[in-house]
Design a protein that fits this description.
A: TIM Barrel; disordered C terminus; B: Rossmann fold; six-stranded mixed sheet
Chain lengths: 500, 446
């Protein structure tokens, strides 16, 4: 094995690619607002909606694209989204209030996930569509509607546990703690009939936490059968909500991802030096020379992701329905397609910045780069997303082109570990060595690209009384970058709402 | 040749020389070991029989299910062996990506269980990979099973060390080949054959062929995946080289079209990998020609046949399975023909239906039609209608026809085609059944 740098270069598209080429702008932001700092790019979310809409168009399908709000709590992204024709999927009272306040009308909101009474009340009162987990929630919702004399609430019945209809093949799905098993559909439909005065079933829904197209296709096929069961009960359901999980392609180069994962395999088996802190195997381990375990990483290079994944899903044939493609079946059954992309809808919509505080070499020869940021501020490791940060050099002349750091090794000869600012051994921002174009120096910024989906402030805390990152919205106007605080953004560009 | 049982016909497969005009090697004779001629169709017949055989009497007594993690050939052989002994067989897999293989297994009476894919929202605390769950279930009491465990079972290797390897030596007049090249799946055949050949002549060079990571060749593991295989020992191989799916298909075509060997993609990968590895060595032999004048030999394994991989080929090389253009096809319509077609909106369609009773043909699938349709319509699903039209006009010219599909896109094309075929009064429902519904017109369920 040679020591060639194992890059995992992020896949960048405009405007994310463009803002990363504006180092002075990024340094000014961090100088003013501190490190860490999150930057969201609201215009990109609108472009992403268009891409999903185009897939609907290709299959002649009506319906709605609901942004899974939990992927990012940004006000700017949600307000920008409200200015499009997309919907939003909220999973808490706070998210529902946020969506309503950002300008979403109730017909564009779906409330999903575990709900407390307050969340359920506001959802029913405002008339948003409620995705109900099962008979218990349906009964509770109906009681709430009757008690307060509310109009009937539109509900989606969340289903799970789909199994292949074909005999002889059993397709196992990941266990889910949400939804009603399709084997108990009859009981749920009985409850729907009992509560027809208080709830209006608009359709069925599911969300499968899997990258597998086969499982998702199977679930959609099951949903088509469930819709038919609803129709047989005299209901007129209109929509199938297929949830999200369409994925994001994080990396520029599939071959680099292959090289890196092969190197990890060899490192775990001991046939090359470790490329992770403490020989961490990301779920892999060696037993008697054989590799065991499962790679606990997001498949960072995904040629089929986002809208293209949805397109492929709709093109899949349904074995139990004459082999017709799923998209055709949705269309000819006159159903609307609802989807709830989270990560995929905020693809390329933001980045996280951190200042380099210290660079040092341990006695064992590992190079550590300490950042003004904790691992919770950019939960890339927690979500198993591996991408190299982009080095944003500090303003001023580059020092003499030794390019090698103080120890005289080649610039790319070995990687660095990025550590956080918590006084905890475990506060590592990367558990793997990352290779940068040159060793970073105090004052440089590292930009973690494409973090808007779950990897921005999903897990941010005030542990150790450290500041939580500020968040700004940025957009390009007449060739220069403009920004405002996230909470001050309204979609009134061109001036970020300052003059309009 | 007479046998008491089909399992006696496993092994003793032919070793066939590849015509040098095909591979172009001047100093090396290249032989294909035709494991595809085993009775259940592949090299895995040997391993399956070797692994299952010792446990069969006990399994029959307990009524056990034979269980294996397999996506193809091992499952095929085990399904047959299980059936012959009155046992059931279950194949657990997350790799079965070729539909025909799946269907064939069902035909053979196998049960298939597919493992779930990876989580989209990673839960790093979830260390339970699907395989761990599989092993836990096998260990659970009260579920009698015979787990053949092909990736770890030494009997897999032993079948080739005792069979395939010695057969090659015997067919080469008692000499081991100079090179042996094989694709690595369970590593059983390559390890077993290498063991036998090296015992005979330690100088034999062994080349392991794996798939490229970014693609997939049925039956072969990639460079990383081979490390998950218990039988895989890197020391078995002098070199390990990767073959791409495209190259495997090229190799397969050469074997099929020029050598008369109806090999599948894995055999193609072995052929391609063999020639690619040997060519520079052959050139080297030319440079030192006359040093000893001895011709060298190389052997690769053709592990199964092509027939089960048609959809795999269709996906990657559709042109190889091309069909001639059909008569009366909507694909041949011009925009002008489509624009000239009569379309009729819901209001006018309802009046027309009441006045002239046209035949209403609903082109949607039967599932959708059964749920809701225009009263009195007939359902001919588009793909059937398409075939029907190839034969000519299916309606009398005196019978007016209204075509309906979901949004009016398909129906207008078929209306145009019927018009071209000479029908004088065919119309398409504008906006389709969706527009009909949105206009509040009645839809019924019979």
């Amino acid at each position: 094995m040679n020591g060639a740098p194992l890059h995992l270069e992020p896949h960048l598209e405009p405007p994310l690619a463009t803002v990363l080429r504006a180092p002075a702008f990024l340094h000014t932001l961090v100088d003013a607002l501190g490190s860490p700092l999150n930057v969201v790019l609201p215009d990109r979310i609108a472009a992403n909606v268009d891409r999903f809409r185009a897939v609907h168009g290709r299959h002649s399908l009506a319906g709605q694209v609901f942004f899974a709000h939990k992927a990012n709590r940004s006000r700017a992204l949600v307000r920008r989204l409200a200015a499009t024709d997309a919907g939003i999927d909220v999973a808490s009272l706070g998210e529902l209030q946020h969506a309503l306040g950002a300008g979403f009308t109730p017909d564009r909101i779906v409330a999903t996930g575990p709900k407390d009474p307050q969340f359920r009340w506001l959802a029913a009162r405002t008339g948003v569509t409620v995705s109900v987990d099962g008979e218990g929630e349906l009964t509770g919702l109906a009681a709430l509607v009757r008690r307060h004399g509310l109009p009937p609430v539109r509900v989606l019945l969340r289903l799970s546990g789909f199994e292949a209809a074909a005999s002889g093949i059993r397709v196992r799905s990941r266990q889910s703690r949400f939804g009603t098993s399709v084997t108990q559909l009859d009981g749920l439909l009985d409850a729907v009939e009992r509560h027809r005065d208080a709830v209006e079933p608009v359709g069925v829904g599911h969300h499968l936490d899997t990258t597998s197209l086969d499982e998702k296709a199977l679930a959609l096929e099951g949903a088509l059968h469930a819709m038919d069961a609803l129709r047989r009960r005299g209901c007129q359901p209109r929509a199938i909500d297929i949830g999200g999980g369409f994925g994001v392609n994080y990396l520029a180069d599939g071959a680099a991802w292959d090289r890196w994962t092969t190197a990890l395999t060899h490192a775990v088996l001991g046939s090359r030096p470790p490329l992770t802190w403490g020989g961490h195997g990301y779920g892999l381990r060696a037993e008697g020379g054989t590799l065991r375990g499962a790679l606990g990483l997001y498949p960072a290079h995904r040629p089929l992701a986002g809208p293209a994944y949805l397109d492929a899903l709709l093109a899949r044939p349904a074995a139990s329905l004459g082999g017709r493609p799923l998209g055709t079946l949705l269309l000819e059954n006159l159903y609307d397609l609802y989807s709830e992309p989270g990560r995929a809808l905020v693809d390329q919509c933001g980045l996280s910045l951190a200042r380099v505080l210290e660079v040092r070499t341990t006695a064992a020869g590992d190079r550590l780069v300490r950042l003004a940021m904790t691992a919770n501020d950019v939960s890339l490791e927690e979500h198993g997303v591996l991408m190299d940060p982009v080095l944003v050099p500090h303003d001023g002349p580059e020092p003499a082109a030794d390019g090698a750091g103080s120890d005289g090794a080649g610039p790319a000869a070995h990687g660095v570990y990025l550590t956080g600012s918590l006084c905890l051994e475990s506060d590592l921002i990367t558990r793997r060595a990352v290779f940068l174009p040159r060793p970073p120096r105090p004052g440089d910024l590292l930009a973690f690209a494409n973090t808007a989906g779950y990897c921005m402030d999903f897990s941010a805390t005030r542990a150790q009384a450290q500041p939580v990152a500020h968040k700004v919205a940025a957009w390009e106007e007449d060739g220069s970058w403009r920004w405002c605080l996230d909470e001050q953004y309204w979609p009134l560009t061109p001036s970020g709402g300052l003059t309009a | 040749m007479r046998y008491d049982s089909i399992t006696d016909a496993i092994g003793d497969t032919p070793l066939v020389r590849i015509d040098p005009a095909v591979h172009g090697l001047r100093h090396i004779d290249l032989y294909a070991k035709l494991e595809m001629l085993n009775p259940f169709g592949s090299v895995k017949d040997r391993a399956a029989w070797s692994m299952a055989r010792p446990g069969l009497p006990d399994a029959v007594r307990r009524g056990a299910t034979i269980v294996e993690l397999s996506s193809g050939n091992t499952a095929k052989a085990l399904a047959v062996i299980a059936g012959m002994h009155g046992l059931s067989f279950k194949s657990v897999t997350n790799r079965m990506r070729v539909p025909e293989v799946k269907e064939l297994l069902l035909l053979l009476g196998a049960e298939i269980e597919e493992l779930p894919g990876r989580s989209e929202c990673l839960d790093p605390t979830d260390t339970e990979d699907p395989l761990t769950l599989f092993h836990q279930e096998l260990a659970r009491p009260g579920q009698p099973s015979l787990h053949t465990d092909q990736y770890f079972n030494d009997l897999n290797t032993a079948a080739h060390a005792a069979g395939t390897g010695p057969e090659i030596i015997a067919d080469l007049d008692g000499r081991a080949p100079d090179w042996f090249l094989a694709c690595v799946g369970t590593a059983g055949s390559s390890t077993g054959v290498a063991r036998a050949l090296r015992a005979h002549d330690p100088a034999v060079r062994v080349v392991g062929l794996v798939g490229e990571k970014s693609d997939f060749i049925p039956g072969i593991r990639t460079l990383d995946e081979v490390h998950e295989v218990g039988l895989f020992d890197p020391a078995t191989y002098d070199t390990i080289e990767a073959v791409g799916a495209d190259d495997a298909l090229d190799g397969m075509l050469t074997l099929i079209r020029r050598c008369g060997l109806l090999a599948g993609p894995t055999g193609g990968a072995a052929y391609h990998g063999a020639v690619r590895h040997l060519r520079p060595l052959d050139d080297g032999l030319a440079a030192e020609a006359g040093a000893d004048g001895r011709r060298r030999t190389a052997v690769f394994i053709v592990c199964d046949r092509v027939e089960s991989y048609l959809s795999y080929i269709r996906e990657r090389r559709p042109e190889l399975l091309g069909r001639p253009p059909a008569r009366n096809s909507v694909a041949t319509l011009t925009d002008a023909e489509i624009r000239a077609t009569t379309v009729i909106d819901t209001t006018d369609a309802r009046k027309w239906i009441a006045a002239e009773r046209p035949l209403v043909v609903d082109l949607r699938g039967p599932f959708a039609y059964a749920a809701l349709h225009i009263d009195g319509s007939v359902n001919i699903v588009d793909e059937l209608f398409d075939e029907l039209l190839r034969g000519g006009l299916p309606f009398s010219k005196r019978q007016p026809v209204l075509l309906a599909c979901p949004v009016g896109e398909k129906s207008v094309r078929y209306a145009a085609l019927l018009t071209r075929m000479g029908h004088p009064d065919v119309r398409s429902l504008a906006g389709g059944i969706i527009a009909w519904r949105d206009a509040g017109a009645p839809l019924v369920r019979d």
